[in-house]
Amino acid sequence: MPPELLDRIAAHVDGDSIRYLTHAAPYFKYISSAMFGVMQLVEEDDQYLGSSYYWPGLKLDDIGIDTPPPGGGNLYPHSHLNAIESYSRILSKHGGYAEVIAKEGMGIMVYFLPKMLELTVWRAEWKQLANMLIGIREFKRSICALNYLRARGDEAPPDESTNLLGSVRINTFVAWMPLPFEIQRVCHRIPNLTTLELVSPDDCTGIILAECQNLKEVRFLGPFQTEGQVDCFMENLKESRVRKVGVVKSAIF
In what order do the strands lie in the sheet with 244-247? Predict the structure, then answer.
C-alpha cells in the first residue's frame, strides 16, 4: 500500500487504535518511536497513561510535561525538547494538535509544538496570556479551539492581550465564563473564527456579528431568558454570515 494512503489512514485513527495500527504495520514505526520518545519524558507515576493522551492530541498538562519554571531556564534539556519537537512534526503531518494551558513560560514551548493547538485559559495572568499569544503568532501556530474559563483577578484585560487575540488564527472560541466586553469587541478581528460558544446572549452584545467574516455558528450554554435578549441578538444577527444558532445540551450550568 502506498505511503500516502497509509498516512491518510493514520490521520483518521483515534488514540486508542493508533497503538494497534503501529504494531500491525511496520511502516508506522516512525510514529510509535517518536511517541515513545515523548513517553520517556513523563514522570514514572504517569507512565501508565495510554496512547489516547498522545494521539491525536498531545495532552501536555495531563501527562505532566509542563513549562519552563519562573526565572528562566528550561525544565527539560535540549534533547528532551527535540523529542517533543520531533513528535510534534508527526502530529502536524497527520492533522494532530497539542492541548496547552496558558501559563508562565508556555510562549517559549510553542516553538516545539504542533502547528495546531488547543489553548485553555484558566487562572492565567493577562501578561502570561499575552506572552503565549505572541509565541503563537510569531511561530505561526493556529488555535483549533480556545477554551476561556477565567483569567486571574478581576481586572479588565489590557489592550495588549485583547489586540493579540485579534491577531491569531482561532477556529472555535469557547467561553465557559462571562466574556469580558474588552474581548467581545475584538472577536470580529480574529482570523478564521467559525464557531462561538458563549455562556449567554449577554456575552454577545459587544460582538459585531456582521463583521465576523467567517463566523458560521453561535452556541450558548443556556437558553434566552427574556424577550429583550432575543430582540437584541436577532438585531445583531442581521447581515451576518451565521447559519446556525443553538444551545449546548451538555452544558454544566
Answer: 57-59, 97-101, 116-124, 142-151, 170-175, 195-198, 217-220, 244-247
Q: What percent of the chain has pLDDT over 90?
A: 57
CB 57 within 8 A of CB 90: no
The pTM score is 0.86
Backbone angles phi, psi at 161, to 5 degrees: -70, -45
Nearest-angstrom CA–CA distance, 117 and 65: 15
If we measure between CA atoms, which residue out of 252, 222, 218, 214 comes closest to residue 234?
218
Read off the pLDDT of residues 146-177 as tens digits, 9 standing for 90 and up: 999 876 655 678 888 889 999 999 999 999 98
User: Which residue shows C-alpha cell 496570556?
Assistant: 129
In sequence order, what DSSP letters do the residues of 181-198 get, joined into one string?
HHHHTTGGG-TT--EEEE
| Pairing between β-strand 116-124 and β-strand 97-101 as defined by DSSP bridges | parallel
Q: Which of 231, 198, 232 is nearest to 215 (CA)?
A: 198
Say whether 68 sits in a helix, a strand or coil. coil
Residues with Cβ within 8 Å of 24's Cβ and at least 6 positions away in sequence, in order, are: none
95 backbone φψ class: left, alpha, beta (φ>0; ψ -120 to 50)? left
Tens-place pLDDT, residues 215-234: 999 999 988 889 999 999 99
Nearest CA to 54 out of 26, 24, 31 is that of: 31
CB of 122 closer than 8 Å to CB of 100: no
> pLDDT tens across 55-94, in order?
999 998 877 776 555 555 545 567 778 999 999 999 999 9
